[in-house]
Q: What sequence folds into this?
C-alpha cells in the first residue's frame, strides 16, 4: 500500500501473508530482531483479529517482546532458550519421519533448540542430542544407534568453531544432514564464517547448509525433508 | 598404509572404499580434478579388478582422463557436459520421488547436468528445465505446474550471477530446494560467492545450500531427500 | 581555514556549501551520525543565520540531535522513521516523474522512507509500497500496474537479506531501478554485503546500486533520474 | 524444456526471449563469455531464422566467436575494442538525452566503449572523453563545458585503480553519474574491488554503481535514464 | 623481566624506552586504548620519576584516563579533539619544513588534529585546512596557494568514505602526501577499508599510506619527511 | 541425551568429559564466554560432586562468573589478568622442558598470561618476558641468553598489530615457537587478522600458529611440545 | 651488498646463509618457485663451491629446475611428488621421536610427502598414512594403534576441503598435531582458506597450524617438536 | 577528445601529459601492463615527435613491448629486472639525499630494483642491499652503518611473505621508511596482502606504505622525500 511519509509506521505498513500455511503447507514466521517491538506486537494483534489465520512462529524474539506477543496471543508458547514464541502453543501431532537435532557443544544449544522447536511446530517428531563434538569422538560413536534409527529421516547438526561435526555425521548415516553453523567461537571463527566454510566444503556428500545461527531455517528444511508425502497442490 | 617416500606414488597410496555403496546406500564417487590422470586410471583399474564393487561416479573429469577411465572400464558412460563418467553406464531403475533440476541460464547448464546425472545414477527419476532466470519471470511462472507436480520431491536450482532464483522457487513450492551457486558471472560475482551468499540469505525457508559449482553434491543431496524410505541399517 | 589546535572545535571548522543548491540544483545535506551533536547544532544555527541559504536535509539523525536542530530551525520537519530533518518543512511542489519506493520487508522500511523523504524534498511526487519480497511473489505481481504506471520515472528498491527484489523488478519494468541494499539480516548477510553483491550481479540490466543503507543517496539519485528537464547551467 | 542428459547440448537448451524488445523497450543481449562458441552461434542462427525478432547485442565476445556470429548474421557490426557484436549494424536514430562516456585512463577505454556502443544501439546520442583521471585535474576541468552541456542527460564514468573520478564528476554536474569500476590496476586494487568501493562510498550524491567491468550495464542504465519519455506500457 | 603469574600486573611489566628520543630523534608515544587505565597511569608516574626522560605523547586517550595522566604529569597538555596528552605541554620551537594537514570533512577532524598535534610536538610548523572534500572541488582549488607554498614540505590528508582526496591533492603538488584513511562512513566503507584501498591505489604517485585512523602515525611520518637535515647518528 | 524442549536448559544438557585427563593426559577445560553463567556454575558443581574427576581450567571467564565457580569450588585459583580459574589451585610439580612466554607489548599481556597459567597447570616450568617488540630490537636482543637457555623447550610469543615478533624469535632459536596473534591494534589490524597472517607467512620455519587471542591453546600446545616423554597409552 | 642496476642479477645478489645449520641446528632451505631458474642454479653452484656448507633442501622445485640443481649437485636426491631436492641425498640417521604424517586424501599427498621428506632430512624417523579422511571414519579408527604408538612424538596432518581431520586426530592422541591445510578443493574452499580456518578453530587443543600447502614448514616444525634434546647453544 | 566508436583506438585516444615534468617537477610515467603493445608504442612515438617533452619512464613493461619502445626511442635504457624503460637513458645528476633500497629476499629483487631505477631517474643517489630478511637478523644488523649513514634521507624496503622487515628497520633509523609489500609468498600471503597488512600495522612509526609490488611508487615517493629543497612553484 502507499503510505504518506508522515505516518510511515501506520498499521498498514505490515502486510501479513495469512494464507501462507495453506499455500505452502507450512506456518508463517515473523523474524523479530529486525523489527521494532511495536511492529511485532501489531503483527500479533492482527493475527489474533484474523479469523483462523493458521499457525505462526515468532523467531529471534527477546524476553521483552515475547511478553508483548503473549499479551496479544495469551495462549502462545514461549521457549526462551530457542528465542521462539509459537502459536498455537501445542504443536500438531507428529507426521512423517523423525528429525534428530545434534548440538556439538553446550554453546550451540540455543540454535539447536530453535531448529527443534521449529520442526516440532511444523509437525515432526523430534529428538535432541547434546555435546557430541569431534574433539571427543567416543561421545558421538556412543550414539550411532540413535543416528541410524530407521525412524530418523533428517538430522540437524548445529556446530560452531571448527564446524567439523556435520562432515563426520554425514559419513556415518544415509539420511540428509542439515548443517547450521553457529557464531560460537572467537578470533578467526569470524562469527561463524569458519564453521560455515567447513560445512560447505564437507568431504562427505549429503550436507545441506543454511545460514549462520539460522536454527529456524534448519528446522524448517529438516521438516520439509522428512515430510510424510508429496507437496501440497497449489 | 605406510609408504616409502621413494615410491610415494605406488598404487597402494589409494585406498578405495569399495563397500561404501553397501554402508551408506549410495555409490562411491571419485573427484578427479585434484588427482593426476595416472591416479584416476589406477582407481578405475582397481574397480574393474575388484569383484562386484558397486557402482562408481568419476566427477569433474576432463576429456582426456575420461578416455583413460573408459579404457579401464569400457562399459562406462561419459557425459561430457556434466564432466561425469558413470559405471555401470545404465542407471538403476528409478525409485522414490522425482528430482527436478533447474538451470537459471544456459551457462549454468554444466552444473545442473552434473546434478541431474548424479541423481539419476543414485536411482531417481529426473527432469531438466533451462533458462528460467528471474530477469524474465514469465518463463518461470510458465513452468509452475511442473514445479508443483506431486511427483517432485526435491528441486535442484543452479544459478550464478545474482543467484536469486532459489529464493523465488522456494516461495512457490512446498518441497526442499537444493541451491547450487555457479561460478558464472564476473567482477563482484567473485567466482560464485555472490550467488552463494544470496542463497544462504534466502528470505524464503526451505533452501539447502551446497558449495559453488558442486553439481555432484546437489544431485546427491536431492537424491537422498527424495529417497523412497528410511535409511539403510548399518 | 587554518585553525589553531588549541581550539580545533571552533565554529570556523565547518565550512558550509550554502550555494550548493544553486550550483547543482539540489539541496545541501548534512550527514549527522559522524558528527558531534554540537557540530550538527552549529550547522543548523549557521543555516538560520545565513540569508536565504536554500533548503537542507539532516540525515541519519537521532532523536536527541534532531531536537537540537529543531531548536535552531523551529520550522523544520522531523521524520523519525527516516531519521531525517528537513528544512523547510514543506517540500517543493512536485515536478518531473514519479519516484516509486519499494521496501521488500517491514524491516527495510526505515531506509525506504529515507529515500522517499529525500526524493520528496528534492521535488518529486513519491509513492511507497511495502512487503513485496520475492518469497511471496504474488504480492509483487499484484502491484504490477503501479510499477508500470507511465507516471513512474524511477523505482527505488530497498531490500536486505538475499537482496533479490531489484533483479525481479528490473525484469518487469522499463525504467531505471535504484537498488539500495539494507543491513537487515544476520550471519552471512554480513551487514548488507550479501544484498549488495546480489544487486551488483543482477541478471537484469537497469539496476543502479548505491551504498548499504544509503536511503538518502537512493532517493537523491532517483530524483535526479526523474528530473523534469536538462541539468542546470553552472 | 526437459532435456535428456544424453543430448544436454541440443538446440532446445537455449530459450530465447525474442519479445524482450517489445516487453521492456530495449534489445535482448547475449553474454558470450560464459557460453560455448557453439551455443553463441546457435543463438545467432535462431535470431536469423526468427521473423523480425528485434535487435540484439552480443557482449563480451572474443574475435573468434564474433566471426561465428557474423557468419550467421552477416550484416552485424563488430566493435573489437568494446567486444560487442550488434545486430542490426546500424543503431536506431538517437532519441532522448545525450549519454556522455568518460574513461579515466586509456586502459579503461574498452569498458567505456562497451558502454558507448550499448547506449548508441539503445537509441541514444553518445560522446566519448578519454584520459581525464583525477591525477591531472586540469584535463577534466578543461572539459567542464562538455560535461555541463544541457543536452547531456547521463554521464558514464569508467575508472579503475582508485576509482575516484565519479565522485569528482558528480560534484560538478547535476545529472546522474553511472559509475563503472574497471579491473584496471594491480595489488590492492583486487581486480576492481577498490574502485568499486570508492564509487559506492562517493561523498557526492548522484552516483549509480554497476558491476566491475560491466560496460554493457552502464550503457544500458544510462540509456534508460536518458530515455525520451515514460516507460512503455506492458 | 620475568613475572610471577600471581602478580602479573606488577609495575615491572611495563618497560619504558626512555632513551628513544635520543636514539631515534623523536619522542616516545604510549598507545592508550589497549591498556588499562592503571597501566597508563603507571607509565605517566614512571616518566615523572625518571630524571630527564625526554618528551612523551599519550595517544588515543579518553577523557578519564587523560585526567589520570595529568594527575601524574600536571604540566601536560590535553587535546580532547585529538585524544592526545603531550608532555611537556609546550611543543619545541619549529624546525624544518611546514606540515600542512587537510581534513576532507568535519568528521575527519579528530584524526587530522591528532596528526597535527603529533607533528607540532615533533617540532614542526603546522597548519590545518578543513572541509575540502572532492565533492565540492572549488573548495580545494581555492586553497591551491596554501598547498603549493614553498614552506610546505609534507601534506597530511585525512579522509573517510571514498578517500579520494589524497589522489587529487598529490596530482596538484610536488611534496609527499601522507594519506590517512578514517573510519568515517557506513555500509561498504567497512570502517575505513574503502578509503584505505582508494589511497593505496592512487593514480597519482607520491602518496604515503598509513593505517586507518592513525593520525599519530601520519603526523610522525610527516614530521620525519619535513625534518630539517640528516638523521641523527646512532 | 534427548531433552524435551520445555526444559532444554536442564542439567542433563551438559555432558562432562571427566576422564579426559586420563585419556589424553591433560586436564579438561571449560570455555566460559559462550556459556551462560548458570551453565558454567553447573559444570563447577558437577565437578565438585564427581569423585576425583581430575583437574579443570575455566578459561575466558569474567569476574562475576569466576565468583560463581569459586563458590562451587572454593579452593580454585582465579587469575583475573589471564581470565582463568584453575582447580585445584596448586599446579602440579613441573616436569619436562621450560615454556618461555613472550608478550610483545603490555597490551598483549592478558593473552600471554593465559598461556603461562595454562602451561603451568599442565605441569611445566614457565617464565614470562614482556615488552620485547621489534620496534626496539635491543630489548629482545638483551634477552637472547634467556631465549636460548637449554632448559627452554618451547617459546610462546603473543603479539598484536604487525605480529612480527615470532618471525624474529624463530630466526634466533632452535626450539619451536608457538605464535598467538592478539586482537591488539586498530584499523587494518582487523581484530588480529593482520598479526595472524604475518605469523602464518613467517619467513623463518618453526612457527606454530594458533587462533587469535587463544592463549589457552598456545599454552596447551607448548606444554605438549615440552612434555617429558612419549604420549600416554590409551 | 650494493649492486649497480645495470647488473642487478649478478651472482652477488644472493647472500647464502651457509652457517645456518650450525646456528639453528637445521639445514638451510631454498624456496624455489619465487626465484628464476638461473638464481636457483647459482645457489646450487655456490653450495658446491663452498667447503662443507652443511645440508640444504630445495623446495617447491619443478622438474626443469630440479635438473639444473642436480647438474650442479649431482649427488642430490630429487623427490618429484614432494617437489624437493635434498643434498646430500642420504638423510642423517634418525634421532628423537617419530614423525607420523597423515594425508586426508590422495590429493593431499604432495604436501604430506613434502613434510615427510623434510622431517626425514632433518633427522627424524617418519611414517606416512594416506586416505584417512573424516568422511569414512573407520579408516582412521583402524589406525589408532599407529597414531598412539609411544614412539610417535609429533603428527603432521595434511588436509584440504573441510580440513576437519586435525580436530579429530588431536582429540585421539596426546602428542602435538601439526596441521597443514592444502589448497585441494574448489568454490568456497578459497584455495585452502576454508581448511585453514577450520584448523585455527579446532575444538580440540594441541593443533599447531602452518600456512596453506606449507609441507616444508610442517615437516620442519614436527622435526623440531620431536627433536632429541635441548636446543643448540648459539 | 570525443572519438567515434568506429575508430576508438585512433591515436587521439591517448592524451599525453607532456608538461607534467614541469608542473610537478617529476617525469611522466606510462604504466604498460594495462595497455596494448600498440598503445604503448604510440605513446613512445608521440614522445619522440614532441619537441623537448621531458623525461619519461615506461613501467611494468615486458620484453616484447620494451623492444617496441626502443624502436621508437632508440636511446632509451631498458632494465629487464626492474621491467622499466627509461628515456633518456642517462639519469640526471644526483641531487638531494640518498635513497637506500632494501630487498628482504632475492625474490623481492625485481620490485626493489624498480624502486631504485625510478629514484635514480628522478635524480637521487641510490644504493641497493639484498637478502636482509628478519629470519636471519645478523644480516641486517651487519648493515646498520649503511642504514644510519647521514647521507641517507629515505629507505625503501621491499618485502613479501610476513612483510616484517619495515617494522624492524623503522625501529633502527630516524628517516622515513617506504614499505612496499611484494606478492612473493603463497597460501595465506594472498598475493601480498599479508605483507601489506603487516606494514600498515607496523608497531614502529615512520613507515609509509604503498601498493603491493608498486616499486615505481615506492621509488617516486622516496625521491620526493629526499628531494633537495622545497616544492616547485606551480
A:
Amino acid at each position: 500500500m502507499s503510505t504518506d511519509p508522515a505516518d510511515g509506521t501506520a498499521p498498514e505498513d505490515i502486510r501479513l501473508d495469512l494464507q501462507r500455511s495453506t499455500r505452502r503447507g507450512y506456518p508463517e514466521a515473523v523474524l523479530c530482531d529486525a523489527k521494532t517491538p511495536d511492529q511485532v506486537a501489531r503483527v500479533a494483534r492482527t493475527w489474533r483479529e484474523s479469523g483462523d489465520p493458521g499457525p505462526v512462529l515468532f523467531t529471534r524474539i527477546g524476553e521483552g517482546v515475547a511478553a508483548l506477543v503473549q499479551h496479544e496471543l495469551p495462549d502462545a508458547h514461549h521457549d526462551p532458550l530457542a528465542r521462539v514464541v509459537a502459536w498455537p502453543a501445542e504443536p500438531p501431532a507428529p507426521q512423517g519421519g523423525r528429525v534428530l537435532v545434534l548440538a556439538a557443544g553446550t554453546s550451540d544449544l540455543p540454535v539447536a533448540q530453535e531448529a527443534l522447536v521449529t520442526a516440532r511446530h511444523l509437525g515432526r517428531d523430534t529428538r535432541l542430542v547434546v555435546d557430541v563434538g569431534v574433539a571427543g569422538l567416543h561421545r558421538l560413536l556412543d550414539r550411532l544407534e540413535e543416528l541410524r534409527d530407521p525412524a530418523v529421516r533428517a538430522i540437524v547438526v548445529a556446530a560452531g568453531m571448527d564446524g567439523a561435526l556435520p562432515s563426520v555425521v554425514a559419513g556415518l548415516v544415509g539420511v540428509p544432514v542439515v548443517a547450521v553453523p553457529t557464531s560460537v567461537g572467537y578470533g578467526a571463527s569470524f562469527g561463524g564464517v569458519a564453521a560455515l566454510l567447513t560445512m560447505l566444503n564437507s568431504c562427505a556428500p549429503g550436507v545441506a547448509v543454511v545460514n549462520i545461527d539460522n536454527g529456524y531455517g534448519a528446522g524448517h528444511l529438516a521438516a520439509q525433508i522428512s515430510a510424510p508425502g508429496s507437496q501440497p497442490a497449489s
Summary: The two ends of chain D are 26 Å apart (CA to CA). Residues 71 and 78 of chain D are 12 Å apart (CA to CA). The beta strands of chain D are 28-31, 56-59, 77-79, 84-87, 98-103, 125-130, 152-159, 177-181, 207-209. Chain D is about 30% helix and 20% strand.
